[in-house]
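In this section we walk through a basic example: taking a raw amino acid sequence and producing a predicted 3D structure, encoded as C-alpha cells. The instruction is simple. Fold the sequence below.
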Amino acid sequence: MPHAVLTALFLALAHDLPDAVFVRNSVTVQIDSVYTETTELVVVPLTGRGVVRFTTLSVPFRSGWETVELLEARTGLWRSGRRGSDAVVTERPHHALAGQSRLESSMRELVLAMPGLETGDTVVVRTRRVIRNLPLADCYSYHFSPWCRDSVICGEFTVIDTRNSGLLVEWSPEFGPPDTSGSALMWRVGPLSPLDDHPLAFRSRPYAVVASHDVQSVSRELHTALDVQYSTDTGLLHETAVLAGPTPGDMRDWIARNIEYTGADIGDWPGFSPKTPHETLADGAGVCRDTAVLLASLIRAAGGEAWLAMLDTTGGIPGLVGSRSFDHMVVAIPDGDGFRVLDSSVRGVPDGHSYGLRGTRFLPLTPWGTPLQTIPVDGWEDSLTLVLTGALVDGRISATLSATASGAPAELIGTIMQRSHDSYRITLLARFFGAESLSQVCTVGDTLLLTGAWSAPEGEGVVLLPGLRDIAFPGTRAAHLLIPACPGSIELDAPAFENLTLVLALDGRAFVPPAPVSAGEYSCSVFVTGDSLLMRETARVLPLRPEPRRILETLINRSGSSARTVLTQ
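The resulting C-alpha cell sequence is shown next.
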C-alpha cells in the first residue's frame, strides 16, 4: 500500500472520522478513433454512513452511443472468518427516469450491490467506458473531480491523446499543472480530507479538466446542432405567443402551466434531441429541452431575441466544457450586457428559474459563440415572515398563521399550492408549517393564511412556545443546516432570513417570560402585555464563508428552546 495512503488512513483514524477513505480513485482517458475512459475505485468505508453509501453503486450510461464494460467489482473483507465476494450486477433503466416522468429507454445504469459490506472492508470497482459518438457535436471533455463529501480522497487522472487533438487543460490549485514527462498528461492529488479541523483538510473542490474545444466553439457547435429545431412556420407559434402573453416571462409561465413534464427518446441523439415546437404543442408534454425550444420559438415568433442555453444543475461546470457537460436546457434572453435565464420546465417560480440554480454557470448557444455566464446570486433574499395570532389553552394554540415568503421558500410554497393534489395539499402545508392540524387554507395577495392548531407542550410550571425550528422547519436553507457535519463547509449563495411573531391571548394564568437571547444573527424575546403574550424570533444566515462559526452559533441557538420556555404561576 502506498505511503500516502497509509498516512491518510492513519490520520483519518487518529482524528475526526470521515465516512470513507479513497485508497485509489483514478481515471485514464485515451483518445484515438474513440474515447475510452477507464475508471478504478478502491474505497474503505469507515462509518455506518460510509457503508450505506458504498453498499450500492450506480454506473450510468447511454445505450446506442457508448458502452460500459465492468472489469471488476468486488469486496475485500478485513475481518477473519469472512470471505470477499463479487458484486451482484444488474442492468436496468436509470432510477431517475420514473421520478422525473421521463420515458427514455437509452438512459440506463449498471447497479452494483456489495453484499455483506462492513466498516473497514474494501470496495473495488473498475470500469471501461467506450464512447463512439458524442451527442449533438464532437466536443469532448472530461471533468475529473475526486471530491467526495465527508471522505478522505486520493486521486489520479491520466490523459493519453494519440489523436494529437491539441487538448485544452485547466486545473485547481490542489492539482497543479500536469506531469508531462511521459507521453501522457498526469495529475495526482491527495490525500485530502473535507473535515474542517482535520490535518488533511481542503477548502475547495479539487479538479482537473481536459477539452477538445474552447467554450465559444462549444457554444457555436451546439447551436448549429440544435438550431434546426426552430420552426420556420410561425403561424401557430404567433397565435400561441399571443395566447400566452406579451412578455417572455408570460410565455414561460404559460408553458410551465400547460406542458406536462414528460419525455421520451426521439431524434438522432436520444436523451439530447428535442422535439419541434409543433410536436411539443401537439403532445402537450415535453422535458426541459422540448419546452426550451418551444419557449425560444415563441419569443422569436413575437419578434424577440432568445437563445437556447445549457447548464449543469449540480453547479459543477469548470471553465472548459463539452457535449456531455450539461444536464439541463433553458432559454437565455439578452439582458443588458448579459443574459437572463428562463426555465420553462418548472412551475411556481416567480423569477423565471428555480432558486436552486443561483450561482450556476450556463452556456448560451449562439452562432458567434458565447462564453460561460453565471446566474446572479445577489439582488434577492430567501425570507420567510410568519405571524401566528390566536389563543393558548392547555398546551394547544388555536390560531391563524400568515406566511409571506420570497426566494426559495416562496418557490417551495408555490410548488405545494400549484402542483399538489387537493386531497393532500392541506396535509403537506401542515407538515411544512409544523401544525398539528389545519382546517382552512387561503391566499390573500402574496400572503398565505392557514387556520389550525399548533402544539405548545406544558410541564410542571412551564410552557414551551413553538419557534422557528417548529413552524418554519423546512422554510429556508437555514433549517436544513441545523446540524452541519462540518461548519467549514457551510457556504450560502444568498442570505436566508426568518422572522416569527406570536401574538397569543392567555388563559388567565400568570406567565413569566425568559430573558431575551441574542447571539450570532439570532434573537428571541418574549413579552407579556396585559392578557396577551408576544414573542419575536429572528434568524439570519448570511453568506459568510470566512466565518462559519458565527453561522453555526446562529443555527444552534435557533434549534434551542430556552429562549421560548415560559414559566407559569
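Looking at the output, two observations stand out. Residues 1-15, 195-203, 473-493 have pLDDT under 50 and may be disordered. The first strand starts at residue 20 and ends at 31. In the next section we compare this with other chains.
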